[in-house]
Amino acid sequence: MSLERESHYFAPASGPAYSGVLSRRVMAFVVDYLIVAILWVPAAVLLFFIGIATLGLAFLLYPVLYFIVAVFYFGLTMGGPAQASPGMRSMGIAIARTNGMPMDFFTAIAHLALFWLFNSIVTPLILLVGLFTDRKRLIHDFLVGTVVVRSDTL
């Protein structure tokens, strides 16, 4: 990764790389979870037929199917070459690791799992952290070592 690209990740919070990132993240969240909800429907139909083939054993996955779909959706999109989910791309943001390495599938899953964990504990108040931190980072961004930037500044 070039030094020019890395410099955007460590730009001051008032710089163009981070302006409006927090509100764009909220909108990207809404778009992404609508897409996950839409993808859940064919996954549920597929699981129904797999359940028939496995004599009902696959039906045990129904309670966690939404989470399984979300894990693969975010792992493959945020951990892919675009470094952003479709919702993030529609809002013009991307995620990157602070050490300059590209996001991978497992880092994206860890980011998602920590988001779910902190959101279940602190509810949407987790977004308040972004108002008081530099680069608009949230708790799970600090723990995983990621930062969300505007993709038009990359």
Automatic annotation (TrEMBL):
Pfam family, any one: RDD
Bilayer disposition of the protein: Multi-pass membrane protein
This protein's UniProt keywords: Membrane, Transmembrane, Transmembrane helix
TM helices/strands, residue ranges: 26-50, 57-76, 108-132
Endpoints of the signal sequence: none
GO cellular component, one term: membrane
Localisation per UniProt entry: Membrane
Ranges where the RDD domain occurs: 22-144
Protein's name according to its UniProt entry: Putative RDD family membrane protein YckC
Naturally occurring in which organism (per UniProt): Martelella mediterranea
